[in-house]
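Tip: read the tokens left to right.
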């Protein structure tokens, strides 16, 4: 995870999930446990995480707690992600 990937994911959450580009979101802001992101948004967020990291992440192995913060999203990508086949 580099800072540009982190920033890209934070911007995605602000603009596409929360629909509030002014939201005060950081790498460690609780998103799921605070109710800011619901379970429906998690799948779209996981798909974006795959795009940002260029990894394939098995959705069946990802729990909502794994997606609670942007930093945790990148942790799960590092732990479970596999390079995409081209």
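Filled-in amino acids:
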């Amino acid at each position: 995870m580099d800072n540009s990937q982190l920033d890209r994911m934070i911007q995605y959450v602000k603009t596409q999930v929360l629909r509030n580009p002014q939201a005060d979101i950081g790498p460690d802001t609780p998103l799921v446990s605070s109710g800011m992101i619901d379970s429906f948004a998690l799948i779209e967020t996981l798909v974006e995480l795959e795009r940002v990291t260029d990894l394939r992440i098995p959705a069946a192995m990802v729990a909502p707690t794994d997606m609670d913060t942007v930093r945790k999203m990148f942790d799960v990508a590092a732990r479970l992600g596999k390079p995409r086949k081209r």
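The chain has a mean pLDDT of 95. The first strand starts at residue 55 and ends at 56.
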